[in-house]
Amino acid sequence: MEKFEGKIFTALCTTNVLISCLLFSKITREQREPYMDEIFHVPQAQKFCEGKFDEWDPMITTLPGLYLVSVGLIQPVVWLADLSGKAVCSAAMLRFINTLFNCGNLYLLYLIIYQIHYKDKTRTACRRVLTALSLSTFPVLYFFTFLYYTDAGSTFFTLFTYLMTLYGSHKMAAMLGVCAILFRQTNVVWVGFCAGTVVAQRLDEVWAAEQTKKRDHRSPAGSHVPLNVAGAKRLVRFLWEFATTTANMKALVMATWPYLLVAAGFAGFVALNGGIVVGDRSSHEACLNFPQLFYFLSFTLLLSLPLTLCPRRVLRFLQSIRRQPLLYLALTTLALLLVWKFTHVHKYLLADNRHFPFYVWQRVYQRHPLVRYLLVPGYVFATWSFQDTLLQGRSLFWALAFGVCLVVSTVPQKLLEFRYYILPYLLYRLHMPLGSTPRLLLEIGLYAAINGATIYIFLYRTFQWPDSTDVQRFMW
Questions:
Q1: CA-CA 20 to 30 A from 72: which of 50, 276, 330, 340?
Q2: What is the rounded CA–CA span in Å between residue 306 and residue 300?
Q3: Looking at the predicted structure, is the pLDDT value of residue 113 above 80?
Q4: How far is CA 100 from the centre of its chain?
Q5: Angle, vertex CA 273, rays to CA 155 and CA 425, nearest 5
Q6: Which among 338, 326, 294, 334 is positioned nearest to 229, based on CA atoms?
């Protein structure tokens, strides 16, 4: 890290911590008691603080990583300061741990950005710092920094895993991947993505070597593959030859064995547990909810508009349709079919009016039966924009690894829940080309406005249900 860049980053880190602590203090004063899912997480953590590790709330569906880390951070403070009483593991104390994770996430995001974009030397210091600051305030993630949820810690350990993969420390990455899985079981997908990047790198090398041997001057060095029928045939043939070559597979196993051990351990856990979910499984049944992928792509398009929106981009999309009308007709038909046959509505989505997705579904998708089909052209544009951005400076093999993990992480989810989009969005955004300073400032401004609005609504737009005197609050 250059000296000047380090000073900028330190100043912004300090500002971020100060603002986060002030917001934490305000939110904790207004909502002292556990709220929403905290009514399960806080009592469970308090049991762990008391040493009751054999007691478990069956309503909790994630592994105990959050509670173990909480005890690991709080108990040394208790011993050193000779503290006692309920305040030691109070809701406020437990929530503050996520504020610490927020600081860690900012630093990890910066290191990952520095590692990914280190070759770009043209006035990037400020833009790297601004990108890290922007992503650390990503609205869905930042909001749950102030509540005792698993999101901040899950993101921290997954980002840490990916950073170690980028550094080539695969054993450390695998160990951190286990920590990520202990926070949320679905993080096994992103541990798999880390292994996938190692495989993609090896494929890139072999592909480039083969093109050099064949002296195919029409194919640039690297893993460029023409996106047409002929290119697809070449790709399939190459992958088949690669997979049936013993030396290649041996090299892959040697490079990815730490991740394979994690995968084997997770498979053993699933076999013994009888499924991925621990505790209550009735509300977490997997299904083929293909429109979930469209919801994520639309969400991504909207949150990345400051960096991606420009008239030239829309014109390129229209030109792409004009060049390949049959392809887009087929994609639109497929999307309509998936929306028609695979749209699932979770019982929780319409049962709890405290969540923003309730209003998205009620006021958009339920406005008329045809709305979900009328949105398909928007889904097609969101898909085109996503892949267009993702392939800038990325190999096709890397994009395939990310795409597979994205589908596996989103499609089985029946519930429309924006928290499920945190990690795929961050990984997508991290690999986008660095935006210009004005666009990054616009993105930071957008995120700040959304964060300000959601926190204000949470604090001051409370309501009560007719059959309860408890104060209810709106949230993500």
A1: 276
A2: 11
A3: yes
A4: 19
A5: 20
A6: 326
* C-alpha to C-alpha distances, 141 to 48, 149, 150, 277, 474, nearest whole angstrom: 25, 10, 10, 22, 16
How does pLDDT run across 414-426, given as a tens digit for each residue? 999 999 999 999 9
Q: How far apart are CA 314 and CA 384, in angstroms?
A: 10
Q: Which of 436, 400, 440, 406 is nearest to 421 (CA)?
A: 406
Cβ atoms 182, 68 nearer than 8 A = yes
**What's the mean pLDDT in 425-430?**
96
For residues 424 and 39, give the distance between their C-alpha atoms in angstroms, rounded to a whole number: 27
3-state secondary structure of 383: helix
- Smallest Cα–Cα separation from 160: which of 176, 175, 149? 176
DSSP string computed for 103-120: HHHHHHHHHHHHHHTTT-
Q: For residue 425, which amino acid is it?
A: Y
Q: Cα–Cα–Cα angle for 11, 14, 17, nearest 5°?
A: 150
Q: How far apart are the first and last CA of the chain?
A: 35
Handedness of CA 111, 139, 63, 470 (dihedral sign): positive
**For residue 219, what is the DSSP state?**
S
For the purposes of burial, counting CB atoms within 10 Å of the CB of 99, is it exposed (0-12), middle (13-18) or buried (19 or more)? middle
Q: What is the CA radius of gyration of the chain?
A: 23
The owner of tokens 């060095």 is: 221
Instruction: Tell me the per-residue pLDDT of 184-203, one tens digit each, with 9 for 90 and over.
Output: 999 999 999 999 999 999 98
* Residue among 181, 431, 429 nearest 173 (CA): 181
Q: Phi-psi category of 51—alpha, beta or left, where left has phi over 0 and alpha has psi -120 to 50?
A: left
Q: Which string of DSSP letters, residue by residue, matches 34-48?
A: --TTHHHHHHHHHHH
Asked whether 22 and 125 are in contact (CB, 8 A), the reply is no
User: Pick from 201, 209, 195, 206: which is nearest to 245 by CA?
Assistant: 206
Residue 475: strand, helix, or coil: strand
| Nearest C-alpha neighbor of 28 from the set 139, 149, 146, 137 | 146
Task: List the Cα angle 154/170/396 in 5-degree steps.
Answer: 85
The answer to whether 287 touches 344, Cβ cutoff 8 Å, is yes
Q: What is the mean pLDDT of the chain?
A: 90
The pLDDT value given to residue 223? 46
Q: What is the rounded CA–CA span in Å between residue 450 and residue 455?
A: 8
Number of continuous H segments (helices) and E segments (strands) in the chain: 21, 0
Distance CA 414, CA 434 (A): 34
Q: Is the CB of residue 203 less than 8 Å from the CB of residue 242?
A: yes
